[in-house]
Design goal:
The protein is mainly α and 479 residues long. It has a single domain, classed as Up-down Bundle (Growth Hormone, Chain: A). The protein contains 22 helices and no strands. Helix 2 packs antiparallel against helix 5 and helix 3 runs antiparallel to helix 20. The radius of gyration is 23 Å and the shape is globular.
Length: 479
Amino acid sequence: MTNSKNEEHWYSGITRYQWIVLLIALVGWLFDTFEGQIFVASMREAMPSLVDAQSAENIPLYNNIALGAFLIGGALGGIVFGIISDKIGRKRTMIFSILFYSFFTWMSAFSQTWWHLAGLRFFVALGVGGEWAIASAFVAEVFPDKARAHAGSIFHASGIFGTLLAVAVGAFLIGNPAVSDWCHSPALSWLHRFVDPASLPWRFGFALGLFPAILIVFVRFYVQEPESWKIANERAKLDPVQKTGDFRELFHGSIFRSTLVGTLLAAIGMATFWGVHIYGKDALFHAAEHDFVSKIINQEPSKYNTETETGKEEIKIYLKNQSGLLKRWEMFGMLLVTAGLGFGQLYFGPLSQKIGRRKTFVFYHLGSFIIALVVFQLVHGIIPLLILLPIFGFLTAGMHAGYAVYFPELYPTRLRSTGTGFCFNAGRLIAVPVLFFTGWIQTNGITLITAATLLSFLYLLGPVTIYFAEETKGQELLN
């Protein structure tokens, strides 16, 4: 009786080595996410310090170019490293990808102009995109069928800790007045000859990106190649038809449908993540800003008169003086959204085991559309946003865990990392024009919140895509 009940748990019988693989994979993805989100946490400070006054109005466009460069780099990295992983193994390729994104995030700290930062985001993303493709295939191959969806969800959800780390760096390093004062102090005068001291906090934030390289030691000594990959590699040596990492196979026969569905799902998820999800924090920022302005106007209505140019200028000065507090509100919004994201991604696995992968994707996409409209258009106060932002995060990015669960199930072992990496990262590439469009319309008078609202309609394409998808619940991995 007891053994029968234990077998019902997804984690029963999981070995110590399998837990080690999951731990290393999720720590790698955690740092992946940090390398991506440190730019989001610092974009209000980094980009303005890298442009002159004449180009200030183009900052929204430059930020979106940097985001677009990150998506392009992620697409290329996921495809290239995915193919390499299927050819030479998961372990060695994971080491290369971690080294890649750690080094170039550190290099970002030395950017001197906006295009330096945008270009380096491309190289960071090469490693980030590759590491996800390798790790998701690794986890799927190491865990048994009953635990695969849960392990995949836990793996992908671990990215929230990378975002939380970026939030902490944004709040306590980049947006910390004490750190800013220290950066202007004589102790760092030798640095002032090379960079503006006001830019040092965000530069230090990017410099922290070198630390993930330490993970390579654990990959080197604790990880082994999956048995399924070894078998597929041996089979490929004997039979050219079973060639590993053959990119062309993704576009032939029944595999092509899987590639098309996976790519479209990822494209919707990436476009809405960078065009909708990350701006949940801005809803709280603007609500706090509005609250600050309302209070100061009530206290001194004559000085802060919005009907006069002088009053408007005084409000700008006041808000600039409150930038530290407003930064904390922005980071708190990012924290709430990220907390919801974590629960949403953890819940994808168990829910997809109950109702299936397809229905779970539909639930998340339709829920995302509804909550985005509510947060961006119907609610504007601080208190209701504190309640709604975790729900917003739960839905708008919860389906991303489904990529780690679902994509590896679509491909045989010889193509698993190649196909998974292509779907996830080609989705990034397709999302790039959406981000460029978002930056362009913001430079033409459309507010950030309105742009995010418009992009939320992309969620409605999710159920349409899922209509053509196959259900993989309860099936063994393809050999």
